Structures are given as structure tokens and as C-alpha cells.
Amino acid sequence: MSVVALVSGGLDSTLIAYLAIEEGVKIHPIFVNYGQRALDRELAACEGAMRKLGLELTVADLSGYGVLIRSGLTDPSLRVLEDAFTPGRNMLFLLVAAAHAYQVGADAISIGLLHEETSLFPDQTSAFLQEAEALISRIMGRSIKVLAPLADFHKDEVIALAKQKGVESTYSCHLGQETPCGHCIACNEFNVEEV
Fold it and tell me: Which reaction is catalysed here (predicted)?
């Protein structure tokens, strides 16, 4: 099996890459620049993690998306916590990953969504993933599975497993500052220091 894995430099997607390699899955990591405020730090963390795993990272430059679809994740004039919903972002990610999967002959794509109880937005649910998989298979003309390997996990379990697997030097703050802000959605998930 081969998978196109959406990787962001954060803990969840980096852990997914580690687990895929451990299971002998051929992985094609892809990072999406959607115009996010944290682009530089996310990309640097992602490049470092993929290099450590011996994987070649593909970077999709869709930076214009963040100009068109403004949110606290893309526009510094908006509040990063209260204005975090970026409409269509996860569908955009899945579509780009699926198109890449089609090109490289991969069977599936993966995204780092956690347990549905932690969902804040409609594009973080199991129903969304099921419908996205059906749509992707239709528009690609062949079956491409949509996987969320951490869908049964809560953040504390992800942190524990990541420590066990030796995942380090990830970056998850939406502001992109050297020191994570401690207040955005990504930082609030932690309650402990980023690994």
C-alpha cells in the first residue's frame, strides 16, 4: 500500500508519517502552503521531520487560497482563536492530496484529524471524511481511500505515543512565532509543552 500523507510539521501529521513507515507503508508526504501565517516555521519543522525519516517532501503552493479565504490562520488582522475556521481548508487539502495520489499511483491519502469528540469545525468529522472519500473516488475515476489514522485518539494519547516513537521538533502554533503563543487552537490542545 502507498499513501499520500498530508503533513504540516505539527505533532499529529508527523506522528502519522512515523507510524506509516513503521508499518511498512510507502509514504508520499505533501505539505500545503495555503497562505497560513505560520508557513515558515511549519515548513521548516516539516522538512526537518521528513528529512529525518528519509522521505522526499512535496510542497504544494496554494498560497492564494489564504488571500481569498481569510481567517485568523491566514490574515494577521483577524483573531487567530475566534476567527480560526477557514472554510473548505480540509477539503482543499484532501483534493490536492488525492490529485497527487492519482499522479503517483497511491492507494490512499491521510490527514491528521483526531477523535471526533475534539472536532470544532464541520470538516473534522467522520461524516465529512466518508463523503470526501466518495467524492474523491468519483472525480478521480478510481478508488482512493481517505484515512485518518489518529481518529480514535485524543491529544494526550497522541502526545504520549509521539514521545514513545521519538517524534520531536514539531511546530503547531497558528501564529508562527518562535515561541508558540499558548492561546490559539493548536496551542490550546496541548496543556503541555510541544515536543
Answer: 7-carboxy-7-carbaguanine + NH4(+) + 2 ATP = 7-cyano-7-carbaguanine + 2 AMP + 2 diphosphate + 2 H(+)
Q: Please give the Cα distance from 161 to 141 (Å, whole number).
A: 36
Overall fold of domain 2-188: Rossmann fold (3.40.50)
Of the pLDDT bands very low, low, confident and very high (cuts 50, 70, 90), residue 193 is very low
Residue type, 47: E
Whether the CB-CB separation of 15 and 165 falls below 8 Å is answered with: yes
Structural contact between residues 149 and 184, judged by C-beta atoms closer than 8 angstroms: no
What b/e sequence results for 29-40 when a residue is b if at least 16 CB atoms lie within 10 Å of its CB, and e otherwise?
bbbbbbbbbbbe
**Looking at the DSSP assignment, which residues form a beta bridge with residue 58?**
30
Per-residue pLDDT tens over the stretch 102-140: 999 999 999 999 998 888 898 999 999 999 999 999 999
**How are beta strands 26-33 and 2-6 bridged, if at all?**
parallel
Distance of CA 52 to the CA centre of its chain: 18
Residue 134 CB-half CA count within 13 A: 5
Location of C-alpha cell 476567527: 83
